[in-house]
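A common beginner's mistake is to predict each chain separately and then try to dock the pieces by hand. The better habit, illustrated here, is to supply every component at once so that their relative placement is modeled jointly.
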Amino acid sequence: MASVNTERSKIKTSSKTKFKTNLTNFQRLKRDKWLYVLLLPGVLYFLIFKYAPMWGIVIAFQNYSPFLGIAGSEWVGFSHFIDFFQNPDFFRLLRNTGILAMLDLIFFFPAPIILALMLNELRINMYKRTVQTMIYVPHFMSWVIIASITYIFFTTSGGAINELVSYFTGKEINFLSAPEWFRPLIMGQIIWKETGWGTVIFLAALASVDQEQYEAAIVDGAGRFRRLWHVTLPAVRSTIIVLLILRLGNFLDTGFQQIYLMSNSLNRDVADVFDTYVYFVGIQQGAFSYSTAVGLFKSIVGIILVLGANKLAKKVGQEGIF
Amino acid sequence: MLKMHNTGPGKVFDVFNFIILGIIGIITVLPFVYIIAGSFATEAELTARSFFIWPETFTTTSYEYIFSTATFTRSLLVSIGITLVGTVICLFFTFSMAYPLSRKNLLGRNLIMNLVVFSMLFSGGMIPTYMVVKSLGLLDSYWALILPLAINPFNLIIVKTFFQNIPLELEESAKIDGCTEIGIFWRIMLPLSKPVLATFALFYAVAIWNDFFSALLYINDNTKWPVQVLLQQIIILSQASLSDAATNASNYVEPPEQSLKLAVVVVATLPILCVYPFLQKHFAKGMLLGSVKG
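With all components supplied together, the output reads:
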């Protein structure tokens, strides 16, 4: 006991010296015991809600029966995966997810960058802040609210957009159930909801650009767009790359809530993506093992995409995220 | 100073930019303005005019109606309850985990951080998570709407970074004064992190209030629906009705349908709209902390 006390008193008086690392592991555990107490709820959270489900993945290789449990269910190897790959649904899901992801990269990804560059050019600060306040608002709305607003505006029974369409063309368009309108609506929603918020990080990056670089560029006779090209864009390049990696990593994570809310029996053919399929087949139809296999396939492809994109970023001389 | 010297095309660009950004801002908020205006309008006006930002006749009938129904008030109370309790729990879990992890000499710190980061890259997925929640007996329990969201790993890392930037000397002097680790956390670290606490309180509150997915998965009992699920049922599926059919059977009055829907959207959005000005003030700081590499 006495030795522990002297040990503690030494720690108390020492500052950031290397001295502390001379302690044995046991002494370090003992010294920090209250810190571990603080750590406990968080660690339990991760074990229960993040890591226990990872163990549950084994049911993808079983014919899981809730009555027999994981220990008692029959093992079937890769048969659920083989079933899934042979199912025509597989190509439909891959196509739908892939198309939405591509549209996302083409239309949604550049939008915040362009908007941030435009905002950055505004000289009147109060006006800038007003515009920012307005465009951040939708980010804080739930997908249910966004989808509800979409329904209210696009419905054929008196929706404002449809009234406008019929005023000009004489007929109404059933935006909400027409398969060809599903993707434009999804893209419109995400651009409307998240573009404004997406500018936050780019504006922070733009604010950190050295003003002297602009002045030097002006002295060298660079016009406005040359300054944009040679000073501003290089300054935000690493931010763009990091966000692009994260985006690619979530390639298959087409937002479940958004798509679930916008899909219906008429547009299902273009609306079904991996996540909604897992929900319909797993939760609603109770095919736990099969849908877990689908989910696992999705997660593994996702992790390969993140690591691949990260490696690519490093190869082209960028920092990457890991 | 040099920036002021703009040539002709530059000025044209400025004017163009000014106007376009104004239009973008207005387009972004216009739907909300219409929803709010429409919720105070009469059914006749909503049918007659397709779009307006100010009702001709102002009426609160829709609001009176929705607050008179048990269905709506109950789900509103559910949402308020889980948001208040959930935010406190999320903050406690996040901050109490972030503080020890901010100590560079904590044994096992790297292991835990790696586990946290790995969980951001790879997850068990929807079905195994559902099975865990089910096996904990949380189905149809309000806890299922709170506990699975208790720590957002991104938030955890930002808070950890924040604690790392607090000077170590502060803790040491507290220790000399005889303060325990938990005392330091409670009496020094938390008071110091008030702005960060406020930021994340708002982030978690928004996340819980807006969460629709958890209730969809885990709550089957429709008397326990939070307001987001009720909203989906009413507007998107047109399945649920607010009227309590059993009690109103005799003197049932058809409520104004369209403005009713708008009023439901407004009430489901209102708490966020109230929180927004505070959020606006704080989140810049919160985001700034996040951009510091941990």
